[in-house]
Amino acid sequence: MKIRKAETKDLPFIVECILESEKSGGDIFPYSAAFGVSISRFSQILLDVFDEEVNDQPWCLDHWFIAESNDGEAAAGLSAWEEGKGGVSSDFLKAQMLNYFLKNEWEQSQENLKVLSSVTIPRKPQYVQLEHLYTHPLYRGKGYMKNLIQEAFNSFGNKYFEIQVLESNKHAVSLYEYIGFSVHERQCNGDIERLSLLSGTCKLQLLRNHG
Questions:
Q1: What CA–CA distance (Å, rounded) separates 70 from 190?
Q2: 20 to 30 A Cα–Cα from 174, which one of 61, 100, 106, 146?
Q3: If DSSP codes are grouped into helix, strand and coil, which group holds residue 147?
Q4: C-alpha closest to that of 196 among 91, 98, 116
Q5: Which pLDDT tens digit goes with each residue over 17-73?
Q6: Are 44 and 51 in contact (CB under 8 A)?
Q7: Is residue 87 packed enough to be buried (19+ CB in 10 Å), middle (13-18) or exposed (0-12)?
Protein backbone atom coordinates (compact mmCIF):
# COMPACT_ATOMS: atom_id res chain seq x y z
CA MET A 1 0.00 0.00 0.00
CA LYS A 2 1.26 3.45 -0.96
CA ILE A 3 -0.34 6.70 0.18
CA ARG A 4 0.37 9.88 -1.77
CA LYS A 5 -1.04 13.25 -2.77
CA ALA A 6 -3.34 13.14 -5.77
CA GLU A 7 -2.16 13.85 -9.31
CA THR A 8 -4.04 14.90 -12.45
CA LYS A 9 -4.13 11.26 -13.60
CA ASP A 10 -6.29 10.48 -10.54
CA LEU A 11 -9.18 12.75 -11.57
CA PRO A 12 -11.39 9.94 -12.99
CA PHE A 13 -11.01 8.02 -9.72
CA ILE A 14 -11.58 11.19 -7.67
CA VAL A 15 -14.84 11.81 -9.54
CA GLU A 16 -15.81 8.21 -8.70
CA CYS A 17 -14.99 8.90 -5.03
CA ILE A 18 -17.25 11.96 -5.03
CA LEU A 19 -20.13 10.27 -6.82
CA GLU A 20 -20.10 7.15 -4.66
CA SER A 21 -19.46 8.88 -1.33
CA GLU A 22 -22.34 11.28 -1.97
CA LYS A 23 -24.65 8.24 -2.17
CA SER A 24 -23.50 7.46 1.39
CA GLY A 25 -24.15 3.74 1.14
CA GLY A 26 -27.52 4.17 -0.60
CA ASP A 27 -28.85 4.50 -4.13
CA ILE A 28 -29.69 8.22 -4.25
CA PHE A 29 -27.21 10.64 -5.83
CA PRO A 30 -28.14 13.94 -4.14
CA TYR A 31 -27.14 16.27 -6.98
CA SER A 32 -29.26 14.38 -9.48
CA ALA A 33 -32.14 14.33 -7.00
CA ALA A 34 -31.87 18.03 -6.17
CA PHE A 35 -31.13 19.49 -9.61
CA GLY A 36 -32.48 16.85 -12.01
CA VAL A 37 -29.13 16.44 -13.78
CA SER A 38 -27.65 13.15 -14.95
CA ILE A 39 -24.64 11.62 -13.24
CA SER A 40 -22.67 11.87 -16.47
CA ARG A 41 -23.36 15.60 -16.73
CA PHE A 42 -22.47 16.18 -13.10
CA SER A 43 -19.25 14.22 -13.60
CA GLN A 44 -18.26 16.68 -16.32
CA ILE A 45 -19.18 19.61 -14.07
CA LEU A 46 -16.88 18.20 -11.41
CA LEU A 47 -14.01 18.03 -13.90
CA ASP A 48 -14.72 21.65 -14.88
CA VAL A 49 -14.69 22.67 -11.20
CA PHE A 50 -11.33 20.96 -10.67
CA ASP A 51 -9.98 22.96 -13.62
CA GLU A 52 -10.86 26.14 -11.70
CA GLU A 53 -8.45 25.16 -8.86
CA VAL A 54 -10.52 26.77 -6.11
CA ASN A 55 -8.87 26.09 -2.74
CA ASP A 56 -10.46 25.53 0.69
CA GLN A 57 -13.23 23.22 -0.52
CA PRO A 58 -13.26 19.49 -1.36
CA TRP A 59 -13.31 19.74 -5.17
CA CYS A 60 -9.68 20.89 -5.42
CA LEU A 61 -6.94 18.48 -6.49
CA ASP A 62 -4.41 19.88 -3.99
CA HIS A 63 -6.60 18.65 -1.11
CA TRP A 64 -6.80 15.00 -2.17
CA PHE A 65 -4.97 11.94 -0.82
CA ILE A 66 -4.89 8.63 -2.66
CA ALA A 67 -4.16 5.14 -1.32
CA GLU A 68 -2.58 3.04 -4.04
CA SER A 69 -2.65 -0.75 -4.10
CA ASN A 70 0.45 -2.89 -4.55
CA ASP A 71 -0.43 -3.26 -8.23
CA GLY A 72 -0.46 0.53 -8.70
CA GLU A 73 -4.25 1.02 -8.80
CA ALA A 74 -6.03 3.81 -6.97
CA ALA A 75 -7.81 1.95 -4.15
CA ALA A 76 -9.16 4.70 -1.88
CA GLY A 77 -9.32 8.47 -1.70
CA LEU A 78 -10.39 11.41 0.42
CA SER A 79 -10.28 15.20 0.41
CA ALA A 80 -8.85 17.10 3.40
CA TRP A 81 -8.62 20.85 3.97
CA GLU A 82 -8.66 23.34 6.82
CA GLU A 83 -12.10 24.92 6.98
CA GLY A 84 -12.33 28.67 6.43
CA LYS A 85 -8.59 29.16 6.02
CA GLY A 86 -9.18 31.75 3.31
CA GLY A 87 -11.98 33.45 5.25
CA VAL A 88 -14.87 31.82 3.35
CA SER A 89 -16.72 28.61 4.22
CA SER A 90 -16.30 25.60 1.95
CA ASP A 91 -20.07 25.21 1.66
CA PHE A 92 -20.36 28.77 0.37
CA LEU A 93 -17.62 28.16 -2.20
CA LYS A 94 -19.33 24.98 -3.40
CA ALA A 95 -22.69 26.78 -3.63
CA GLN A 96 -21.10 29.51 -5.73
CA MET A 97 -19.66 26.98 -8.16
CA LEU A 98 -22.89 25.01 -8.41
CA ASN A 99 -24.82 28.21 -8.99
CA TYR A 100 -22.42 29.08 -11.81
CA PHE A 101 -22.45 25.69 -13.56
CA LEU A 102 -26.13 24.90 -12.87
CA LYS A 103 -27.66 28.38 -12.92
CA ASN A 104 -31.02 27.43 -14.48
CA GLU A 105 -31.34 24.25 -12.42
CA TRP A 106 -30.39 26.16 -9.26
CA GLU A 107 -33.24 28.62 -9.74
CA GLN A 108 -35.73 25.81 -10.37
CA SER A 109 -34.66 23.70 -7.37
CA GLN A 110 -35.28 26.10 -4.50
CA GLU A 111 -37.70 23.79 -2.65
CA ASN A 112 -35.21 20.92 -2.73
CA LEU A 113 -32.35 23.19 -1.68
CA LYS A 114 -34.41 24.58 1.22
CA VAL A 115 -35.07 21.07 2.52
CA LEU A 116 -31.41 20.09 2.14
CA SER A 117 -30.32 23.26 3.95
CA SER A 118 -32.43 22.20 6.93
CA VAL A 119 -29.96 19.39 7.65
CA THR A 120 -26.88 21.44 6.81
CA ILE A 121 -24.54 21.57 9.80
CA PRO A 122 -22.12 24.54 9.65
CA ARG A 123 -18.56 23.27 9.45
CA LYS A 124 -16.29 24.37 12.27
CA PRO A 125 -13.71 26.96 11.24
CA GLN A 126 -10.07 25.82 11.54
CA TYR A 127 -11.11 22.17 11.80
CA VAL A 128 -9.60 19.94 9.13
CA GLN A 129 -12.48 18.57 7.07
CA LEU A 130 -12.36 14.99 5.76
CA GLU A 131 -14.76 14.57 2.85
CA HIS A 132 -15.63 12.10 0.09
CA LEU A 133 -14.00 9.15 1.85
CA TYR A 134 -14.31 6.19 -0.53
CA THR A 135 -12.71 2.80 -1.02
CA HIS A 136 -13.17 0.90 -4.27
CA PRO A 137 -15.16 -2.33 -3.65
CA LEU A 138 -12.19 -4.51 -4.72
CA TYR A 139 -10.08 -3.14 -1.85
CA ARG A 140 -12.55 -2.92 1.04
CA GLY A 141 -11.78 -4.59 4.34
CA LYS A 142 -8.01 -4.29 3.85
CA GLY A 143 -7.30 -1.18 5.90
CA TYR A 144 -6.92 1.29 3.03
CA MET A 145 -9.27 3.92 4.45
CA LYS A 146 -7.94 3.63 7.99
CA ASN A 147 -4.40 4.22 6.73
CA LEU A 148 -5.54 7.02 4.45
CA ILE A 149 -7.20 8.85 7.33
CA GLN A 150 -4.09 8.36 9.45
CA GLU A 151 -2.03 9.98 6.69
CA ALA A 152 -4.37 12.98 6.79
CA PHE A 153 -3.90 13.15 10.58
CA ASN A 154 -0.12 13.08 10.15
CA SER A 155 -0.15 15.69 7.38
CA PHE A 156 -2.08 18.27 9.38
CA GLY A 157 -0.41 17.60 12.70
CA ASN A 158 -2.02 18.66 15.98
CA LYS A 159 -5.33 19.83 14.53
CA TYR A 160 -9.00 19.23 15.22
CA PHE A 161 -10.82 17.12 12.61
CA GLU A 162 -14.40 16.93 11.36
CA ILE A 163 -16.39 14.48 9.24
CA GLN A 164 -20.02 14.83 8.19
CA VAL A 165 -21.94 11.70 7.17
CA LEU A 166 -25.49 10.40 6.92
CA GLU A 167 -26.55 8.51 10.03
CA SER A 168 -27.88 5.70 7.81
CA ASN A 169 -24.32 4.89 6.66
CA LYS A 170 -23.72 2.70 9.70
CA HIS A 171 -20.49 1.13 8.45
CA ALA A 172 -18.84 4.52 7.91
CA VAL A 173 -20.04 5.89 11.26
CA SER A 174 -18.62 2.83 13.02
CA LEU A 175 -15.23 3.27 11.33
CA TYR A 176 -15.04 6.96 12.25
CA GLU A 177 -15.96 6.28 15.87
CA TYR A 178 -13.39 3.48 16.00
CA ILE A 179 -10.59 5.87 15.01
CA GLY A 180 -11.56 8.50 17.59
CA PHE A 181 -14.41 10.58 16.20
CA SER A 182 -17.58 11.18 18.23
CA VAL A 183 -20.97 12.60 17.25
CA HIS A 184 -21.24 16.30 18.07
CA GLU A 185 -24.43 17.31 16.27
CA ARG A 186 -27.36 15.63 14.50
CA GLN A 187 -29.84 17.24 12.10
CA CYS A 188 -32.91 15.49 10.63
CA ASN A 189 -35.81 16.29 8.31
CA GLY A 190 -38.41 13.73 7.21
CA ASP A 191 -39.12 15.73 4.03
CA ILE A 192 -35.80 14.45 2.68
CA GLU A 193 -37.31 10.98 2.46
CA ARG A 194 -40.55 12.31 0.93
CA LEU A 195 -38.59 14.08 -1.81
CA SER A 196 -35.96 11.29 -2.13
CA LEU A 197 -33.10 13.80 -1.85
CA LEU A 198 -30.64 11.77 0.26
CA SER A 199 -30.12 8.14 1.24
CA GLY A 200 -31.07 9.01 4.84
CA THR A 201 -33.03 11.62 6.76
CA CYS A 202 -30.40 12.54 9.38
CA LYS A 203 -26.93 14.01 9.03
CA LEU A 204 -24.21 13.67 11.67
CA GLN A 205 -21.28 15.94 12.47
CA LEU A 206 -18.42 13.93 14.02
CA LEU A 207 -15.41 15.59 15.64
CA ARG A 208 -11.97 14.40 16.72
CA ASN A 209 -9.98 16.55 19.11
CA HIS A 210 -6.57 16.07 17.53
CA GLY A 211 -4.60 13.83 15.18
A1: 44
A2: 61
A3: helix
A4: 116
A5: 999 999 998 899 999 999 999 999 999 999 999 999 999 999 999 999 999 999 999
A6: no
A7: exposed
